[in-house]
Amino acid sequence: MENVIKYVKAINGILFGGYVRDKMADISQFHDVDCRINKEQLTQLINILLVDNIVIENIVGENYKRMEVISYTVTPKANTNQSFKFDVLCCTETKWFQYPCDFDVNMLAESNDAMYIRPHFLSSICTLPDKISHILSRCKSKKFALVALPRDNFTDISVLLFRSKNLVQRGWTMDDFYFSNASWIFSKWSILREEPRSIRLRHNDVSIEAIKSQTTCSLCLEPFSNDDIVFNTCCNHNFHWECHTENSTGICHWFYLKKCFSCPVCKQEAVKHVYIYNNLPRIAV
Ligand SMILES: [Zn+2]
Ligand SMILES: [Zn+2]
Questions:
Q1: pTM of the predicted model as reported, rounded to 2 decimal places
Q2: How far from the centroid of its chain's Cα atoms is residue 152's Cα?
Q3: Rounded to the nearest whole angstrom, what is the distance from the C-alpha of residue 239 to the centroid of ligand 1?
Q4: Are 170 and 6 in contact, with CB atoms under 8 Å apart?
Q5: Which of 182, 215, 262, 282 is the most exposed place for a label (fewest CB within 10 A)?
Q6: 201 CA to centre of ligand 2 in angstroms
C-alpha cells in the first residue's frame, strides 16, 4: 500500500480532475499533494486499494473554492487499526488552471516516503497516458531531474541544491532528463564514473570522457571514493559537495563563501539560474 501512495504522489502534470490530500501521518499535519489524476486513474487506484483494504468513500461536500471533496478511508484487512484517509478534490480543467499549485509541494519532497516528479512542461511526452506511465516508470526506478531552473536567488537555489543532494543520499538517481547540459547533477561517484551516460543523457563523448577523467576533487585534491556524493557542474567539473579534509570544505561552502555559483576551476556558471516558467513550483524533483 505504501507503494500505491508513493505512486499516487508521483502522478502529476497537466491532468485535471482532482488532487489528493494526504492525511496519513496525523489529521492535523496533512500534506497537500500535487497530484492531479483523472477519474479513470482514480478508479484504478481504488481498485488496487480494494485488493487488500476496505475502502469507504464519503462525499464531504464543497471546499471553499467550490471544489467537490470526496474523502476515502482505507483500512487494511490485515490490520484494521491502521487505517488512513485521503481526500480527493474534484475540479474542472478551467478551475484547476485557475489555482495552480497553491499547496506545498516542497514539504512533499522532504518526506521520506513521498516523491514528487513531474515531466517538463514542454517535454515531448505530452499525451496523457504516456505522461503518467513515464512518471511512474521514473518513480519506480527512483529517478528524478530538475524540471525548472530556479530564479536567480541565492536562497532558492541553495534550497534546491540541498534537497537534490538529500534525495541522492536516500538512494534516488538524479539525471539531466529535462535540461541536459543546463542541469547540474548530484551523483554517487561510482555511478558517475561507471555509468555517466545514465545520468548525463545527452552529453557527447568528449564530455563523458571529461567526467570520467576527473577522478579527484579540485578543491581538496583527494580522489573520489565510490560512495562520495559528487557534484557535477553545468560546466562539467566534478567536486565533492562536502570534502572530507580540513583544508577544504567542498563546493557547497565555496558557493556560500562566494555568495555566487561560479566554478572554482573554470569560473563559469556552475549552477544555471534561468527562471523559465512562472507557474511552476520552486522545488522540482
Ligand atoms: Zn573534495
Ligand atoms: Zn567549471
A1: 0.61
A2: 20
A3: 6
A4: no
A5: 215
A6: 19
